[in-house]
Write a sequence for this structure.
């Protein structure tokens, strides 16, 4: 087995009085693709956002790539190594696609403009929209925006990619183009943690499915096992609701 | 590049509300400026007495012409000091000087209002609430009449002779008063502008490893500036008008010069009409400059 790159130990999180995460223990290995599923409000996005500390947790320990998330300096160090893709894209609307990709490279990675531009151009090509380099986010379709957002995260040369429901805000015909990019990434051996209900993607790319409910990990295992023959009743109930279509 | 210009024309066609297209506003403004400037020029030239005299008295433009060639610092500084005999210059100086400082005071106040630190938030909220609850005229009076006395007592207490013998500089106190008051309004504008940017923008920036200040500098502020600019422009115009209040605290601005002329010549109608027209010209141009900057910094969202 390869070494573990994310260690989550007994993490608890409260939103005021709501106990959102109730003792999460999870190890993610290098190169692993983990898909987190679960009903809304089960804490899956919160868990994902704890990994790069966009969300603070109240108890427990998270270590990413050997760096414990405990002070501001470490948090920024982890964030440099962890790319994140959001449900609502969150592209910078005042910058063109290529400038969106170059900004953090220059500011955080201290790359020169030429170097950053070369990387950005290569990544736009990789996600299939090199011709949109000079377009502003508003001029792109949802699928194109999300692909730029993936490229923006990749521009920082991350070791881990987090995806927070990357296709939930997309029109149906645009989901595939985003999933294709994610599949390519998985094939290249990127460590990925994905919150998504895309069964096709999960079956094709995931090494492990994690089913969460009420802030706890209810069941985990390979996709065939969790989707095909789950142990827990709660998993069965959830899947019966999701898979009916 | 092509797609961009195309969608701009699309947008123009979509927002076809009569009177909102750039050309229409331009025309209305030009008509108004032509009317006001024309009327002023007409009054001054056709009736040199009293309008021409009022204009000369308030403007006192001869002070801009150096009396001596300034080979040395004394001549130069006396030339500059002479500017303060012109009421129009004083109004412009007080307005621009305070406004530059207001922009910075607003940044500090606005950051404080956005701070997670309870003490900083508390102090800046207290500042904003106190200042907004007191009339500007009373604040100016306080700074000019009360503050120097407090400062003198403080100086005597700690045996600091400069402070103990301090005499209020009317211009300085007027600018402090205006900045203190408008800084509070400005910090609320900044706070609202920054808060109008979706939370996801900060998260996206932070998730790439940017620090809070980098995210502010490169992501939040460039977007917030477009939201902030129109109300900031309004504040500038309001400050220009409110600067007339400094005339009661010994600053010889346009309004004060007008009052001097009016009481000396017993000619209130023409004096105050002239003063009103001069303020109107200034506010019209400042509004125009603001909308020009707005157009320059616009981007599609």
């Amino acid at each position: 087995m390869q070494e573990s790159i994310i260690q989550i130990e007994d993490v608890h999180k409260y939103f005021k009085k709501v106990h959102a995460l109730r003792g999460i223990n999870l190890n993610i290995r290098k190169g692993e693709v983990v898909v987190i599923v679960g009903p809304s409000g089960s804490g899956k996005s919160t868990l994902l956002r704890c990994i790069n500390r966009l969300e603070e947790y109240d108890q427990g320990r998270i270590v990413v790539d050997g760096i414990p998330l405990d002070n501001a300096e470490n948090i920024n160090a982890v964030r440099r190594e962890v790319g994140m893709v959001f449900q609502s894209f969150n592209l910078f609307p005042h910058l063109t696609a290529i400038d969106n990709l170059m900004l953090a490279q220059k500011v955080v990675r201290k790359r020169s403009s030429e170097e950053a531009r070369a990387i950005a151009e290569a990544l736009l090509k990789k996600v299939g929209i090199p011709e949109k380099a000079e377009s502003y986010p508003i001029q792109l379709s949802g699928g194109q925006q999300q692909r730029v957002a993936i490229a923006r995260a990749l521009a920082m040369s991350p070791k881990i990619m987090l995806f927070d429901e990357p296709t939930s805000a997309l029109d149906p015909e645009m989901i595939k183009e985003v999933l294709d990019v994610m599949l390519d990434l998985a094939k290249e051996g990127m460590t990925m943690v994905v919150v998504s209900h895309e069964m096709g993607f999960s079956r094709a790319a995931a090494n492990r499915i994690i089913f969460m409910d009420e802030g706890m990990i209810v069941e985990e295992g390979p996709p065939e096992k969790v989707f095909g023959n789950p142990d827990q009743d709660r998993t069965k109930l959830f899947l019966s609701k999701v898979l009916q279509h | 590049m092509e797609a961009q210009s195309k969608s701009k024309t699309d947008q123009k066609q979509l927002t076809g509300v009569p009177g909102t297209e750039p050309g229409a506003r331009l025309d209305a403004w030009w008509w108004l400026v032509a009317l006001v400037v024309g009327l002023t020029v007409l009054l001054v030239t056709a009736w040199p007495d009293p309008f021409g005299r009022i204009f000369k008295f308030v403007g006192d433009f001869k002070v801009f012409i150096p009396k001596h060639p300034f080979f040395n610092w004394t001549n130069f500084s006396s030339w500059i000091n002479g500017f303060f005999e012109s009421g129009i210059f004083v109004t412009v100086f007080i307005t621009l000087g305070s406004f530059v400082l207001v922009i910075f005071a607003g940044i500090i106040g606005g950051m404080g209002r956005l701070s997670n630190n309870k003490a900083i938030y508390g102090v800046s909220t207290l500042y904003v609430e106190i200042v907004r609850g007191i009339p500007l005229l009373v604040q100016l009076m306080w700074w000019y009449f009360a503050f120097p006395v407090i400062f003198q007592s403080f100086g005597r207490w700690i045996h600091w002779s400069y402070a103990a013998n301090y005499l209020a500089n009317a211009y300085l106190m007027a600018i402090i008063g205006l900045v203190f008051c408008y800084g509070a309004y400005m910090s609320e504008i900044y706070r609202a502008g920054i808060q109008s940017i979706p939370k996801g923008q900060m998260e996206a920036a932070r998730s790439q490893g940017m620090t809070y200040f980098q995210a502010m500098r490169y992501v939040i502020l460039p977007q917030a500036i477009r939201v902030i600019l129109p109300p900031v422009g309004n504040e500038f115009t309001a400050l220009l008008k409110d600067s007339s209040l400094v005339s009661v605290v010994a600053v010889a601005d346009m309004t004060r010069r007008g009052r001097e002329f009016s009481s000396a010549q017993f000619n209130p109608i023409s004096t105050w009409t002239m003063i009103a027209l001069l303020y109107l010209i200034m506010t019209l141009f400042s509004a125009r400059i603001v909308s020009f900057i707005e157009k320059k910094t616009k981007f599609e969202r």
Chain A has a mean pLDDT of 91. The CA atoms of residues 21 and 215 of chain A lie 4 Å apart.
